[in-house]
């Protein structure tokens, strides 16, 4: 199981339109958001990475890239709306706390099943509906993981319930959602 965690991809491409509207509504109600320390750190790092001028605020372009770095697919009108709603100083920028609040809400609202299915599609680049050793090797290489054939084979064998030598979508879901 641990080896699969190494190969998890940040595939959190969620539709932001609904998340934005729902997130803004919930922020206005001051709902307590439960994030893991890892999620909090991910948001903080995205902001810091794209606050290129280090003024503790990000503009339209920096905001758009930071949101996408967190795995959300946003369009121009959504980014403009966020800036319009949260630019308190009128300088065309959003501060860290507002960014954190918005992104926290979006992260919390992600559908884990949908996210895992997106990750599966990244592994299954040949569209067979299964993850082969070739698929696994490619992902490991792309992530800079130097894994031997035996290690890759062992990963597949560990969760290959139907013993066909590949990981099906159902087997992958079980691995990633902890149902094994």
Report what the structure shows.
The protein has helices at 2-6, 16-28, 37-50, 60-69, 76-86, 96-108, 112-123, 133-142, 149-159, 169-177, and strands at residues 14-15, 57-59, 72-73, 93-95, 130-131, 167-168. The protein has 180 residues and is mainly alpha-helical. It has a two-stranded parallel sheet. It has a two-stranded antiparallel ribbon with strand order 2-4. Strands 5-6 form a two-stranded antiparallel sheet. Helix 7 crosses helix 10.
Structural class: mainly alpha
Number of beta strands: 6
Order of SSEs, N→C? HEHHEHEHEHHEHHEH
Beta-strand percentage range: 5-15%
The count of helical stretches stands at: 10
Please, what is the average pLDDT?
83
Main beta-sheet strand count, sense and barrel state: 2 strands, parallel
The coarse silhouette is: elongated
The radius of gyration computed from the alpha-carbon positions, rounded to a whole number of angstroms, is 19 Å
Residue runs with pLDDT of under 50 for 5 or more positions: 5-31
Distance between the termini: 9 Å
- Widest sheet, order of strands: 1-3
Relative helix content: 55-70%
Topology:
Blueprint: H1 2-6, E1 14-15, H2 16-28, H3 37-50, E2 57-59, H4 60-69, E3 72-73, H5 76-86, E4 93-95, H6 96-108, H7 112-123, E5 130-131, H8 133-142, H9 149-159, E6 167-168, H10 169-177
Parallel strand pairs: 1-3
Antiparallel strand pairs: 2-4, 5-6
Helix pairs in contact: 2-6, 3-4, 3-6, 7-10
């Amino acid at each position: 199981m641990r080896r699969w965690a190494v190969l998890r991809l940040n595939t959190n491409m969620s539709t932001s339109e609904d998340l934005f509207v729902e997130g803004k509504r919930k922020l206005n109600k001051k709902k307590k958001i439960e994030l893991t320390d890892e999620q909090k750190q991910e948001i903080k790092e995205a902001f810091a990475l794209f606050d290129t001028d280090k003024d503790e605020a990000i503009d339209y372009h920096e905001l758009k890239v930071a949101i996408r770095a967190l795995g959300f697919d946003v369009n121009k009108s959504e980014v403009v709306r966020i800036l319009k709603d949260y630019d308190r100083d009128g300088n065309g920028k959003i501060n860290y706390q507002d960014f954190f609040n918005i992104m926290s809400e979006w992260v919390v609202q992600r559908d884990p099943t949908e996210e895992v299915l997106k990750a599966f599609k990244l592994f299954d680049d040949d569209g067979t509906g299964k993850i082969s050793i070739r698929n696994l090797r490619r992902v490991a290489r792309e992530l800079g993981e130097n894994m031997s054939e035996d290690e890759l084979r062992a990963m597949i064998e560990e969760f290959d319930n139907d013993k066909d030598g590949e990981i099906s979508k159902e087997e992958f879901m079980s691995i990633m959602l902890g149902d094994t």
